[in-house]
Design goal:
alpha/beta, six-stranded mixed sheet, 25% strand, binds adenosine-5'-triphosphate, binds magnesium ion
């Protein structure tokens, strides 16, 4: 479980998040929505302990990320996997190497075991025949899949997706949504999805937290979100 308690974050005197409270339940899917620049990524970076807030706490399974020493923070961070918007693959490494690198850096596993894990994860995301392709030869959807395979090699308990379907055509976006749902079920992880994509929200039907003007203006189920009376929620839901 992730508990955000009275979190306030400012940059150069400008407050981005003010007194935010949010609970992300274990093994569920939570979708974070809100307009561009409202602080979604800042909230995710805070969860990873990459930002120091003005005030507040973030507890990951009871441990406050802002008061951990480096060793404890690294241990807690290993529970989290982050899927970045741009996929962030290393251009000089092939698909296999991109996924294997994480394991080589963070585990002491022998080469054949690394090879088994990497193959299994790449097969899982539907890239069984693509091991030796370079990132430049991949489509946007394939890059996302590689990034997903890489995100799950260390068996995270939490997967954070930052705009996983943005910029993909609807069919590929649907495949990525299916894959997120598959991973969620298969590994029993806690999934956190930051998105603007109404179609993605409708397909996933997770818990929803909406940020507007520094605050959480909605926190509840997808069904309640659809029928909520808050002006910003209504505007968001009726957008398309
Ligand atoms: N390291 C930083 N230093 C200064 N300001 C920052 C920093 N990181 C974020 N901000 C500011 O905080 C605000 C929220 O940014 P954030 O990236 O969280 O928005 P977002 O909701 O993720 O937007 P988008 O949907 O476009 O990704 C913005 O005004 C941004 O300029
Ligand atoms: Mg962002």
């Amino acid at each position: 479980m992730i508990e955000v308690k009275n979190l306030t974050v400012s940059f150069d005197g400008k407050t981005v998040l003010e007194n935010i409270n949010l609970t992300i339940s274990k093994n569920e899917i939570t979708i974070i929505v809100g307009q561009s620049g409202c602080g979604k990524s800042v909230l995710m970076k805070s969860i990873e302990g990459l930002i120091t807030p003005d005030t507040g706490k973030i507890l990951i399974d009871g441990m406050n990320v802002f008061s951990l020493n480096r060793k404890e923070l690294n241990k807690t961070r290993r529970k989290l996997a982050m899927l970045f918007q741009g996929s962030a693959l290393l251009d000089s490494l092939n698909v296999y190497q991109n996924v294997a690198l994480t394991l080589m850096e963070h585990s002491k596993l022998p080469e054949d075991e690394i090879s088994n894990i990497v193959s299994e994860k790449l097969e899982l995301v539907g890239l069984a025949d693509t091991f030796y392709k370079m990132p430049a030869e991949l489509s946007g959807g394939m890059k996302k899949r590689v990034a997903l395979a890489r995100a799950i090699v260390l068996q995270p308990e939490y997967i954070i997706y930052d705009e996983p379907t943005t910029g993909l055509d609807p069919i590929i976006a649907d495949e990525i949504i299916n894959l997120m749902l598959k991973l969620h079920r298969k590994y029993n992880v806690t999934s956190i999805i930051v998105t603007h994509d109404l179609h993605c929200i409708q397909r996933i039907e997770g818990n929803i937290a909406m940020i507007h003007d520094k605050k959480i203006v909605f926190d509840g189920t997808y069904n309640d979100f659809k029928n909520d009376n808050n002006d910003y929620v209504k505007k968001f839901v009726s957008r398309n």
